[in-house]
Amino acid sequence: MKLVRYEYLGQEGYGVYKEENIYPIEGEVFGKFEVTSKALKREEVILLNPVNPGKIIAIGLNYADHAGEFDFKLPEEPLIFMVSNTSVIGPEDKITITSPGRRVDFEGELVVIIGRECFGVKEEEALDYVLGYTCGNDVSDRYIQKKDGQWTRAKSYPTYKPMGPWIETELNPDNLSIETLVNGEVKQSSNTKHMIFSVAQLVSFVSQFMPLYPGDAIYTGTPEGVGRLDHGDWVEVKIEGIGTLKNQVERP
């Protein structure tokens, strides 16, 4: 099931995306709901970021090849950092880079959306607390990242966390092709099976010291091939079984 958050005639809502139509739901997306029979045409609505996360947890260096392109040592346990939830935008919004001359990169990632409150869960139970998965772009200011020696500020600017286009709830996250394209050219191409720590391991690990709540998002790391974004670029993150997140870049 593809759960989509949308705006229609000035009103926001959740629905199920199917065959180019959106069927609004009645009820709570993180609880019980029913799918209505009313169909909204895809072109009639604006797709929004699929959740407004209470918090964003990001995972660094979760693909060995990406760690290698920056000459970082592989982590022995998940390397986590926090990102401001004010950085989130949706699949039809623009990435706005306000720092002239600095290298700001794309990073295509699988994003986990938590569906149920959890704390201290075991790895074998972790996926039971996941609502689903979406595409994400962990846009990163390399100058600030190097200057600070940690990553929160470099990745928390407004518009630096695109996600979407919807949440896919019926998916095995452990073997999905993932690609990032810039202006139609493939820049990243990998598979989630190459993640050092699986989704279940990540959810369990984070939940040992931090309660996770419905709508929280975990950016699970990016493969090799990251690169600079320039004015006018169209960047797409494509993940098997989910779809495509597409945003245009604005910068001085």
Summarize the structure.
The protein has 252 residues and is mainly beta. It is built from three helices and 21 strands. The chain is 9% helix and 41% strand.
Per-chain topology:
Layout: E1 2-8, E2 11-18, E3 21-27, E4 33-35, E5 40-41, E6 46-47, E7 56-60, H1 64-69, E8 79-83, E9 88-89, E10 95-96, E11 104-106, E12 108-114, E13 130-137, E14 140-141, H2 142-148, E15 161-168, E16 177-182, E17 185-191, H3 199-207, E18 217-219, E19 227-228, E20 234-239, E21 243-250
Parallel strand pairs: 7-18, 9-15, 10-21
Antiparallel strand pairs: 1-2, 1-6, 1-15, 2-3, 3-4, 3-5, 7-8, 11-14, 11-19, 12-13, 12-18, 13-15, 16-17, 16-20, 20-21
Write up what this structure looks like:
This protein starts with a strand and ends with a strand. A hairpin with a 5-residue loop joins strand 3 and strand 4 (33-35). Strands 1, 2, 3, 4, 5, 6, 7, 8, 9, 12, 13, 15 and 18 form a 13-stranded mixed β-sheet that branches. A five-stranded mixed β-sheet has the order 10-21-20-16-17, with no helix packed on it. Helix content is 9%, strand content 41%. It is mainly beta and 252 residues long. It is globular. The chain folds into two domains: 1-48, SH3 type barrels, CATH 2.30.30.370; 49-250, Fumarylacetoacetase-like, C-terminal domain (Fumarylacetoacetate hydrolase, domain 2, Alpha-Beta Complex), CATH 3.90.850.10. It has helices at residues 64-69, 142-148, 199-207, and strands at 2-8, 11-18, 21-27, 33-35, 40-41, 46-47, 56-60, 79-83, 88-89, 95-96, 104-106, 108-114, 130-137, 140-141, 161-168, 177-182, 185-191, 217-219, 227-228, 234-239, 243-250.
